Amino acid sequence: LVNLGGVDKFDPSNFSSWLALGGRGIDTALVYGDQTQAKVAAAIRASRVPRDEIFLTTKVPCCPMKQVGAMCEGEFNGTTAQNIAKDVAILGAPIDMLLLHWPCDQFEDTLKAYAGMEEALAQGLVRAIGVSNFDSALLKEFLPKVKVKPAVNQCGHSIGSHNATRPFGGDDDTATFCAENGIVYSAYSPLGGLSHIDVMHNPAVVATAKTHNVSTAQVALRWLVQQKIAVVTAANNPEYQKEDMDLFSFSLSDDEMRTLAAI
């Protein structure tokens, strides 16, 4: 349920210490750049953890997509097969989970890109496939058109940023739809960073953390995993990584869950 992500030039993470401390989920993406991808691959190779105990998620872009601008230019504007081949060349095969990083501007292009992922699954290059940043309306249109149901939908979702105005599948309705349709809902930016929500200094979060003698980050992450939502966090400090893993030594009461949901 807990994965370590991070992009070197924005939010670097220490993947080696994560694995050494017991972390087993790692999340990356082609558009995070060769430096981040190579860092992930090197950490896995250097680790004493057997590869089959590590769960590696990566993502390939769906282009064109005007919302992401430069991410669909240059080297990332190839075919899905080319993008997957580059991912595999850096990370090695098989990849445990391959996600479509976002939907294309046009629905037919999204289907075409996902079909390329279905082919990679059939070829044994990946073990499972899914999507990212898909809202419930898109999923309802998408599911009847694909051969393989996405195993995961990864979206931005956190305390303070999960209501109906949260774009790209980060809303509660999308999380509920995924749960009802057997799709694992996964939250990136679970501490609210990308949505500019100061989760960790919110008074209700601070009070809850004091009650349980844990950090505010642990409260924010526990709020998600207690809803059976997977999380993708980022941390370079081993002490923070230990906290991120220690989410199952306490639980939040129903009242606390409702209070945090109302933020």
Describe the structure.
The protein is 38% helix and 13% strand. It has helices at residues 15-20, 34-46, 80-91, 107-122, 136-142, 172-180, 203-212, 216-225, 238-245, 254-261; strands at 2-4, 25-27, 55-60, 97-100, 129-132, 152-156, 184-188, 230-233. The protein has an eight-stranded parallel barrel, surrounded by four helices. It is globular and about 50 Å long.
Radius of gyration: 18 Å
Number of helices: 10
Neighbour order of strands in the largest sheet = 1-2-3-4-5-6-7-8
Strand content: 5-15%
Shape, principal axes of CA atoms: globular
In whole angstroms, the N-to-C terminal distance is 23 Å
Brief write-up:
With 263 residues, this protein is an alpha/beta fold. It has helices spanning 15-20, 34-46, 80-91, 107-122, 136-142, 172-180, 203-212, 216-225, 238-245, 254-261, and strands at residues 2-4, 25-27, 55-60, 97-100, 129-132, 152-156, 184-188, 230-233. Helix 7 (203-212) packs across helix 8 (216-225).
